[in-house]
Write a structure and sequence with these properties.
Elements: E1 22-25, E2 40-43, E3 48-49, H1 61-93, E4 107-112, H2 117-126, E5 134-137, H3 144-152, E6 158-162, H4 166-174, E7 187-191, H5 193-229, H6 239-243, E8 248-252, H7 264-275
Parallel strand pairs: 4-5, 4-6, 7-8
Antiparallel strand pairs: 1-2, 2-3, 6-7
C-alpha cells in the first residue's frame, strides 16, 4: 500500500534540515530509532513522493500474485524439461532411430562338426533371410577350441556349434525308448558376456538359440508325420528324442558378476586380460575366469 503525490513546484522545494533527494524517517521514538512499523518517505527535487513500506505479508494480494506467477513459471519449465529429457536420452542411446537396421553388424559363427541332418538343418536355418544377424559358416575351423578362441578375441559376437555325432545319437535314441537321450548335447551356444555386456547377450539369446529350437520343431514334426504315415505306435519311439530332438548348451566365456559390472577396476581387469597374448590351447580353461 502506498501514497504517491507528484506536483511540479514553481520553485525548487527543499525540506528544512534535510538535503534534496534524501530519505527522511518519521515516527521516531525517544532513542532516535524508528520502530518496525515506521514509514519511510522519499523526497526529491522534481516531485514529492510519499511511499509507505509496511511489513510484507503473504496475505497481500500483490505478494500472492508474484508468488503464484513464479510457481507457474517453475512448473512450466519443469514440465518442458521432463518432456524433452526422454527424447534426448532416446537420441543419445540410439532408441530414437531404428536399432534393427544395425543388426547385420552382429556377426556369429556356425560350426558343423556333425555332418548329418541336424548339421545341415542348422546351416540352412542360419543362412535364412529371416535371420536378423550375420551368420558366418566356419569351413576352415575343425575344433571347438579354435571357435572359442575366435569368440574370446572378439572376431565373432557368438558361435553356434553342432557337436559331433548329434544326428547319430538322435537316430539311435529315436527308435529305442529305453536309450537315454540329452537334447542339449546336440548344439553349443558360445558367447562372451564380459566383452559384449548383458544387452548384447540378450539379443544373442533371442536369435541364435532359436535356430536350434526351430530345427528341433521341424524334425519333431517330420518324425510325427512319418510315424503316423507308417502306422507305428508312439510307444515305439523315445519320447524325449521324438518331441525335443535338438537342444543347446550355453557356454559363457566370461560371466560378469553384477556387483562388478560397472566398476572401473573390473573394466581395467578385463582389458588387461584381453590384451595379454594367450596360447591357443587353454582357451577353454579360461571360460571359467571371473572377476575376483
Amino acid at each position: 500500500q502506498g501514497m504517491q503525490s507528484c506536483e511540479q513546484p514553481s520553485s525548487p522545494q527543499h525540506v528544512s534540515g534535510t538535503p534534496s533527494s534524501e530519505k527522511v524517517e518519521t515516527e521516531m521514538d525517544s532513542t532516535g530509532k524508528s520502530d518496525n512499523n515506521s514509514a519511510v518517505f522519499q523526497v526529491s527535487n522534481d516531485c514529492t513522493q510519499l511511499t509507505k513500506y509496511d511489513q510484507i505479508s503473504i496475505t497481500d494480494q500483490s505478494v500472492r500474485s508474484i508468488v503464484i506467477s513464479s510457481l507457474k513459471s517453475i512448473a512450466k519449465g519443469t514440465a518442458i524439461l521432463l518432456c524433452i529429457l526422454p527424447l534426448l536420452l532416446c537420441l543419445f542411446f540410439g532408441v530414437g532411430w531404428n536399432p534393427k537396421d544395425n543388426y547385420k553388424n552382429i556377426n556369429f559363427a556356425v560350426l558343423d562338426l556333425d555332418g548329418g541332418m541336424i548339421g545341415q538343418a542348422i546351416l540352412t536355418a542360419a543362412q535364412s533371410p529371416t535371420n536378423p544377424f550375420t551368420a558366418t559358416i566356419l569351413s576352415n575351423t575343425t575344433s571347438i577350441d579354435e571357435t572359442v578362441h575366435l569368440v574370446d578375441t572378439g572376431r565373432y559376437n557368438a558361435a553356434l556349434i553342432v557337436n559331433s555325432g548329434a544326428s547319430a545319437n538322435l537316430l539311435a535314441a529315436l527308435t529305442s525308448p529305453t536309450t537315454p537321450y540329452n537334447p542339449a548335447a546336440a548344439t553349443t551356444f558360445i558367447f562372451d558376456e564380459g566383452r559384449g555386456g548383458s544387452a548384447m547377450v540378450s539379443l544373442l539369446r533371442g536369435v541364435v538359440p532359436s535356430i536350434s529350437t526351430g530345427v528341433s520343431r521341424a524334425l519333431a514334426q517330420a518324425f510325427l508325420t512319418r510315424s503316423s504315415t507308417a502306422a507305428v505306435p508312439l510307444a515305439a519311439f523315445n519320447r524325449v528324442a521324438l518331441l525335443t530332438p535338438v537342444g543347446n548348451t550355453e557356454q559363457n566365456l566370461h560371466p560378469v558378476q553384477a556387483k562388478y559390472m560397472y566398476t572401473p577396476r573390473a573394466r581395467m581387469r578385463l582389458h588387461k586380460q584381453r590384451m595379454r597374448p594367450y596360447p591357443h590351447k587353454p582357451a577353454l580353461a579360461r571360460a571359467h575366469w571371473h572377476f575376483d
